[in-house]
Amino acid sequence: MKEDDFCSERKLSRQEFGELRHKTISCYKVLPKRGSDLLEMLQTDVLSTGCYGIDELLQGGLHPGEVTEISGETATGKTQGEEDVMNRIRIAKCFDVYAVMEFIEDLRDHLENKDKDDNVYTNVKLIIIDSFAAIFSPLLGVTQTQGHSLMITLTRILRNLAKEYNIAVLVINAAIASNPNNPISVFSSTKSKPSLGMSWTFMPDVQLYLTHCVENKIENEKNIQQNYVYTNRKEIEVIMKPKICEVHRSRNGQMGKWCIFYMGGNELFTHDDII
């Protein structure tokens, strides 16, 4: 509420309002902040992936309140990218969708009760599911509507939890063949696409796809010649062949953008990460 509206509604002069404001600040010993400013601070608490190029595609990193999917071909860094954003973690071994749902509900209970006895639950910033394909592929098929329904239900549960508690959600997916090519990819020679079918395609807020290098478009990319490089964190061994990360879909208008990255140890990095 604006100052003029507050004074008018309560029939206060500007001087009386100033005195009231001063007394309130004196009692609480902190400067007041607008609720809209606090909300903006929460929504901009973005988690870096550790890779400059991928952060650029995500407009800073993994955003709280959003579901981000990383899918891609074998040995393109899906798991390395996931491990790069983890700090303090709690691992739950869930071998089917019902176990995942049970864990999410248990997490919600801890968050609602503000469990102070467990440091992991007091400051949850990120949920990673690796992988959606593993728990849903056995349930999906032409006649298996229950699998699609469960996938939609779990995604809604994750999105609601993410928005309510300002948590980022990262979902890892697999790849399947796409012949003659992937129509969404900016590279015509991409022969694969994310698994889980069309019902999944529009569920994530952002869909990243990782592939091995394709086409002449990237042949002029400056190659890394040395076997070891230094990033802003440590010395890492370079796995020489570059990979591509592209935005298949995004609610933020980044669709079609891509970057080249490299793998080293458990890290993904671009030229901009090297010091």
From TrEMBL:
<dbReference type="GO" id="GO:0000400">
    <property type="term" value="F:four-way junction DNA binding"/>
</dbReference>
<dbReference type="GO" id="GO:0033063">
    <property type="term" value="C:Rad51B-Rad51C-Rad51D-XRCC2 complex"/>
</dbReference>
<dbReference type="GO" id="GO:0140664">
    <property type="term" value="F:ATP-dependent DNA damage sensor activity"/>
</dbReference>
<keyword id="KW-0539">Nucleus</keyword>
<dbReference type="GO" id="GO:0042148">
    <property type="term" value="P:DNA strand invasion"/>
</dbReference>
<feature type="domain" description="RecA family profile 1">
    <location>
        <begin position="1"/>
        <end position="176"/>
    </location>
</feature>
<dbReference type="InterPro" id="IPR013632">
    <property type="entry name" value="Rad51_C"/>
</dbReference>
<dbReference type="GO" id="GO:0000723">
    <property type="term" value="P:telomere maintenance"/>
</dbReference>
<dbReference type="GO" id="GO:0005815">
    <property type="term" value="C:microtubule organizing center"/>
</dbReference>
<protein>
    <recommendedName>
        <fullName>RecA family profile 1 domain-containing protein</fullName>
    </recommendedName>
</protein>
<dbReference type="GO" id="GO:0005524">
    <property type="term" value="F:ATP binding"/>
</dbReference>
<dbReference type="GO" id="GO:0003697">
    <property type="term" value="F:single-stranded DNA binding"/>
</dbReference>
<dbReference type="GO" id="GO:0005657">
    <property type="term" value="C:replication fork"/>
</dbReference>
<dbReference type="GO" id="GO:0007131">
    <property type="term" value="P:reciprocal meiotic recombination"/>
</dbReference>
<dbReference type="InterPro" id="IPR027417">
    <property type="entry name" value="P-loop_NTPase"/>
</dbReference>
<dbReference type="InterPro" id="IPR051988">
    <property type="entry name" value="HRR_RAD51_Paralog"/>
</dbReference>
<dbReference type="InterPro" id="IPR020588">
    <property type="entry name" value="RecA_ATP-bd"/>
</dbReference>
<dbReference type="GO" id="GO:0000724">
    <property type="term" value="P:double-strand break repair via homologous recombination"/>
</dbReference>
<dbReference type="Pfam" id="PF08423">
    <property type="entry name" value="Rad51"/>
</dbReference>
